[in-house]
C-alpha cells in the first residue's frame, strides 16, 4: 500500500519534471502564454560603433511600444505581464549566436528584435529557425535574411541593401548624374552594396567607371578620392559607414572635388552621422532614408516622446524597433497566444500603417516588410531651423518600387 | 606626373601624423624603455580635447595647437607619476600591459561621455580650400599638416642636439648605463620625457581633428600602424621614427593609388622586409635590440 503511494508520487514528480523541462504547461495567469508572460528581447550593439544609431535607444523604443499596447487594450489585453530585456552582441556573429540561444532558451524570449551587423543577424536567424521563435531584424541590411537564407520565423522590418542602392543609385542617375565611381569597404556589406548599386545604376542608364575597395577600418581616403576623381565622374558613391564615413566626407570636402562639380552620394547614412559631423560638412549629400523623424505631424509627435525619454531625436532604427514591437504585440493580441506559429500567421500578409510603416505590407512570401521610403538631401546650415533638423525629403519612393519583388528576393521557406 | 605628385603630397600629409606620434613613442621608449601601447589613445584624447575646447570655449585650431599639448603634457606627467613609474624596474612587459589596459579604460571613458558617433570639428577658414603649387592643386590643410609637422620635427631635433636637456635625453636613449656612469641623473628626466612624448601624440591628434573622424576608436588602428613605423625606423631611434613615419605615409598613399586592396598590407610587408634585412630597423643600432 505504502509502496503504491510512493510509486504514484514518483510518477507525479517525474511528470512535473518533464513538464518543467518542456517549458511548463499553462502559465500562472491562465492565458496561453509560456510562463504566463511575454518576453521581448532586444539584441544589439550596446557599446560599440552602432550604439548611438540603435543601442539603448532601441530598447527604450520597444518599451514605448509595450506602454502603448497596454494603454490601448487595458483590461482587454491578452497578456498583462510583458517583459523587455536586452543583450549586447558587440557586433560579433559568434556572440550574437550564443546570446540568441541564451535569450530563447533561458530568458524565455518570445521574440528577438533589432540585431545590427549582417553576419550577426544571419546567426540569429538560424537560431530563430531552430528554436521556432520569432526574430524581427531592424538594423541589419543584408538581403539574404529574406532572400537565399530566409525562414518562417525571420522578418526584415526597415530596409535592406537593395532598397538603399535602388533608391539612391536609380534616382541620382535619373536626375542626371550618369557616370559613377564607387568607393567601398572591402567586407561583406561593402561588396554587397557595390553589387546592388552597380545593378541599379546600369538599370537606370548610367555607367560605373570604377569601383575601388578600401581597407576597413581606414582613416585616410585622400588618395582613393584623387584616384576616383581622375576619371571625372559626375558622382562618387561611397559605401563607407560610421567613423569611416565621417573620415571620407571630411576628406572629400577638403579634396576640391565638390568644386569641380562632382557630387557625393552615400550608400547608408544615419541621422546620427549627420549630427556628429555637423550639417555643413554633409550639405547637399543624397541618400535613401527609410524614415525621418520630421516628415509629418505623427512622426514628429512620436519623436517628441522619444526625445523626452532619451534626450535625442530618433534614428530610423529606433522608430523601426518601435514599429516592429508594436505590430508584434498587435499580432499576439489577435492570436491570443505567444505560440510562434500562430503569431507568424497573424503577421504574414498583414497590410498596416503606423508611425514608421507608411503603406506597409508584411509580405507573406518572404517576410520582407515593404513600405514607402525616401530619397533625402542633407540641408544647408542656413536652412536648419532646430537641432536635428537636417533632411529635405526629395522624393517618396513607393513601397512596391523601393524593395525587390518576392520573385527577385529568391526566398523559399 | 601630376597624379604622382599629388599622391606624394597626400602620402607626406598622412605620414605627418605618423611621424609626430612616432617621435613621441620613440622618445618614451628610448628614455624609459616603455613600449607605450596607450599612444593611440593619447592621439585620440588630443583630438577629442580639441573638439571639446572648440565646442565649449570656442578655442580655434590655432589655440588648440598650443593648449592641447600643454594639457596632454600634464596628463602624461600624472599618468607617469601615478602608474608607469612603479613598473619601470620590472620587466618591460608589465608597462606594456599597463598601457594596454589604460587604452581600454580611456577609450571606454570617452565612449561613455561622448558616445560613439564622433564629435564635429570645423577648421579655420584659411585652411579650407585648395592651393596650387607648380600646376598641382592640393588641399591647403594637407599642405599645412605637412609643413607644420616638419617644423615640429626640426624643432625637436634642435632641442635634442643643441640643448643640454636634449643631449641628456639622447645620451640616455642610446647609452643609458654609460650616461648614468658619467654622473648624469637620468631618473630626473624620466617624468618630463614621458609627458613630452604624450604631448606629441596629443599634438598629432589636434592636427587630425579637422581631417579625420573624432571618435573614441580613432586611435586603435592608428596605434597598430604606429608600431610598424617605430619598428621600421628602429626601436628607440628618434631620426628613424620620423623618417619611417613619412615613408609609411608614402607607401600607404601609393598603395592606395595602385593596389587599393593591399594598401594596408603593404606597410607590414615593408616592415617584414626591413626586419629581414636590418633586424634593428633602418636607423636602429644592433645593441639597441639587445
TrEMBL record, chain A:
It holds the Pfam family Peripla_BP_6. Residues 40-379 form the Leucine-binding protein domain. Keywords: Signal. The keyword Signal applies. The keyword Signal applies. Transmembrane segments: none annotated. Residues 1-21 form the signal peptide. Belongs to the leucine-binding protein family. This is ABC transporter substrate-binding protein.
Automatic annotation (TrEMBL), chain B:
Pfam families: BPD_transp_2 (PF02653). It comes from the Bacteria. It is found in: Cell membrane. The lineage of its organism: Bacteria, Bacillati, Actinomycetota, Actinomycetes, Streptosporangiales. The keyword Membrane applies. Belongs to the binding-protein-dependent transport system permease family. LivHM subfamily. Keywords: Amino-acid transport, Cell membrane, Membrane, Transmembrane, Transmembrane helix, Transport. This is Branched-chain amino acid ABC transporter permease. It comes from Actinoallomurus spadix. It is a multi-pass membrane protein. InterPro entries: ABC_transp_permease (IPR001851), BCAA_transport_permease (IPR052157). The chain crosses the membrane at residues 12-35, 143-160, 189-211, 223-251, 257-277. The keyword Zinc-finger does not apply.
Amino acid at each position: 500500500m505504502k509502496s503504491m503511494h510512493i510509486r504514484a508520487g514518483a510518477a507525479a514528480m517525474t511528470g512535473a519534471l518533464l513538464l518543467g523541462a518542456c517549458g511548463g504547461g499553462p502559465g500562472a495567469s491562465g492565458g496561453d502564454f509560456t510562463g504566463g508572460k511575454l518576453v521581448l528581447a532586444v539584441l544589439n550593439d550596446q557599446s560599440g560603433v552602432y550604439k548611438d544609431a540603435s543601442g539603448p535607444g532601441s530598447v527604450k523604443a520597444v518599451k514605448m511600444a509595450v506602454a502603448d499596447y497596454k494603454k490601448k487594450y487595458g483590461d482587454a489585453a491578452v497578456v498583462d505581464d510583458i517583459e523587455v530585456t536586452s543583450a549586447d552582441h558587440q557586433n560579433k556573429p559568434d556572440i550574437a549566436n550564443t546570446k540568441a540561444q541564451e535569450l530563447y532558451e533561458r530568458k524565455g524570449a518570445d521574440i528577438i528584435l533589432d540585431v545590427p551587423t549582417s553576419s550577426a543577424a544571419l546567426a540569429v536567424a538560424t537560431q530563430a529557425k531552430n528554436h521556432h521563435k520569432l526574430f524581427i531584424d531592424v538594423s541589419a541590411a543584408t538581403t539574404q535574411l529574406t532572400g537565399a537564407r530566409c525562414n518562417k520565423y525571420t522578418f526584415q522590418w526597415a530596409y535592406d541593401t537593395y532598397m538603399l542602392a535602388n533608391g539612391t543609385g536609380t534616382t541620382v542617375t535619373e536626375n542626371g548624374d550618369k557616370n559613377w565611381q564607387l568607393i567601398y569597404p572591402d567586407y561583406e556589406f561593402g561588396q554587397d552594396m557595390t553589387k546592388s548599386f552597380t545593378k541599379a545604376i546600369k538599370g537606370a542608364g548610367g555607367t560605373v567607371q570604377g569601383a575601388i575597395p578600401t581597407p576597413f577600418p581606414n582613416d585616410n581616403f585622400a588618395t582613393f578620392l584623387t584616384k576616383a576623381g581622375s576619371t571625372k565622374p559626375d558622382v562618387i558613391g561611397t559605401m563607407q559607414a560610421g567613423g569611416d564615413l565621417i573620415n571620407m566626407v571630411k576628406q572629400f570636402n577638403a579634396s576640391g572635388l565638390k568644386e569641380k562639380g562632382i557630387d557625393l552620394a552615400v550608400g547608408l547614412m544615419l541621422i546620427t552621422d549627420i549630427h556628429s559631423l555637423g550639417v555643413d560638412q554633409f550639405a547637399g549629400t543624397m541618400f535613401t532614408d527609410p524614415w525621418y523623424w520630421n516628415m509629418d505631424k505623427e512622426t514628429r509627435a512620436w519623436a517628441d516622446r522619444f526625445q523626452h525619454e532619451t534626450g535625442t531625436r530618433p534614428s530610423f532604427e529606433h522608430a523601426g524597433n518601435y514599429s516592429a514591437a508594436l505590430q508584434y504585440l498587435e499580432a499576439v493580441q489577435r492570436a491570443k497566444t505567444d505560440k510562434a506559429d500562430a503569431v507568424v500567421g497573424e503577421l504574414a500578409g498583414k497590410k498596416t500603417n503606423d508611425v514608421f510603416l507608411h503603406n506597409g505590407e508584411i509580405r507573406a512570401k518572404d517576410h520582407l516588410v515593404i513600405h514607402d521610403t525616401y530619397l533625402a538631401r542633407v540641408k544647408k546650415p542656413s536652412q536648419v531651423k532646430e537641432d536635428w533638423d537636417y533632411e529635405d525629403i526629395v522624393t517618396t519612393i513607393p513601397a512596391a518600387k523601393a524593395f525587390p519583388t518576392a520573385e527577385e528576393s529568391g526566398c523559399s521557406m | 606626373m601630376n597624379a604622382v605628385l599629388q599622391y606624394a603630397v597626400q602620402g607626406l600629409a598622412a605620414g605627418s601624423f605618423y611621424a609626430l606620434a612616432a617621435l613621441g613613442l620613440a622618445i618614451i621608449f628610448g628614455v624609459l624603455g616603455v613600449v607605450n601601447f596607450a599612444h593611440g589613445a593619447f592621439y585620440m584624447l588630443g583630438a577629442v580635447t580639441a573638439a571639446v575646447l572648440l565646442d565649449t570655449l570656442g578655442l580655434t585650431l590655432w589655440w588648440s595647437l598650443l593648449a592641447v599639448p600643454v594639457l596632454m603634457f600634464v596628463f602624461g606627467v600624472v599618468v607617469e607619476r601615478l602608474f608607469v613609474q612603479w613598473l619601470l624596474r620590472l620587466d618591460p612587459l608589465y608597462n606594456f600591459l599597463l598601457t594596454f589596459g589604460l587604452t581600454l579604460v580611456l577609450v571606454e571613458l570617452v565612449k561613455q561621455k561622448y558616445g560613439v558617433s564622433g564629435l564635429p570639428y570645423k577648421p579655420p577658414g584659411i585652411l579650407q580650400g585648395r592651393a596650387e603649387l607648380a600646376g598641382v592643386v592640393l588641399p591647403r590643410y594637407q599642405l599645412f599638416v605637412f609643413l607644420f609637422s616638419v617644423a615640429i620635427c626640426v624643432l625637436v631635433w634642435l632641442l635634442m642636439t643643441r640643448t643640454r636637456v636634449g643631449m641628456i635625453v639622447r645620451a640616455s636613449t642610446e647609452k643609458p648605463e654609460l650616461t648614468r656612469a658619467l654622473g648624469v641623473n637620468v631618473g630626473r628626466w624620466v617624468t618630463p620625457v614621458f609627458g613630452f612624448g604624450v604631448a606629441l601624440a596629443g599634438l598629432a591628434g589636434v592636427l587630425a581633428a579637422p581631417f579625420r573622424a573624432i571618435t573614441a576608436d580613432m586611435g586603435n588602428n592608428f596605434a597598430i600602424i604606429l608600431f610598424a613605423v617605430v619598428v621600421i625606423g628602429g626601436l628607440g631611434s628618434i631620426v628613424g621614427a620620423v623618417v619611417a613615419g613619412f615613408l609609411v605615409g608614402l607607401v600607404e598613399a601609393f598603395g592606395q593609388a595602385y593596389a587599393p586592396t593591399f594598401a594596408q598590407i603593404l606597410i607590414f610587408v615593408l616592415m617584414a622586409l626591413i626586419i629581414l634585412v636590418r633586424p634593428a630597423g633602418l636607423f636602429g643600432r644592433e645593441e639597441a635590440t639587445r
